[in-house]
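Model the whole thing, not chain by chain.
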Amino acid sequence: MSRHDETTRGDAELLQGTLDMLILKIAALRPIHGYAMVQRLQQISRDALQIRQGSLYPALYRLENRGWLKAEWKTTEGGREAKYYSLTRAGRRQLDQETAGWKRLCQAISLILETAE
Amino acid sequence: MSRHDETTRGDAELLQGTLDMLILKIAALRPIHGYAMVQRLQQISRDALQIRQGSLYPALYRLENRGWLKAEWKTTEGGREAKYYSLTRAGRRQLDQETAGWKRLCQAISLILETAE
DNA sequence: GACGATGCCTTGACATTCTAGGCATCCAGC
DNA sequence: GCTGGATGCCTAGAATGTCAAGGCATCGTC
């Protein structure tokens, strides 16, 4: 996936506030570097989610700064240096909290959307 | 509900991008004025959603400007003048579209969150 | 040696939401 | 008659997060 792919279309935007949760979740599965996160998220969501690098890296920086992620340079299978992110204990808590909040909001919005009359 | 109630607590934030959809939905049920929207949304969502007036009114202005809502001054049951909003045809389309997008995103995020291993 | 994929990053614009106020009217209670 | 709360509208400014659009370096392949 080259840089040009990500600039071709503008749909598939995500909801502001969910990106952190998604990143934390992906990092919780196993340590992973940024570039791979994009692909993994896209793959799991069956192309419904398309995270931009311009959104991802600032978010990673933010999450690391808040102590929810920790980074470590390692070598990929491809033999390159990459920054692997994994969850801290606080990150785990944060993920749980955000997940709970997400579900609450989801339910609330469903209540609204399904109101007839 | 006075202004002071809404400044006392800071939780129950909503996701950026969902407010427009919620407003359109509420207005689709029946013409309604801004002040009542807040109460209605809170009531239907069982207090899970708390819309701030400072978010609401700019949003109403935005939606009206885009041709999705139309406003009309009428008298409330309480005998006051209030601005009643209702959906335009384009607003109806927009609501359907946003609802579909919301469901798609919801599903995508669920896929991520429910990924084990 | 050009091009695509892999990897990282930054800058600036943009939109949306929140904070924190303001204003006017009406009614109930003291 | 006055005060405070509820009903209704609105705004300015800050904070935040995302996006667009670039840049850089390395590697492999044609």
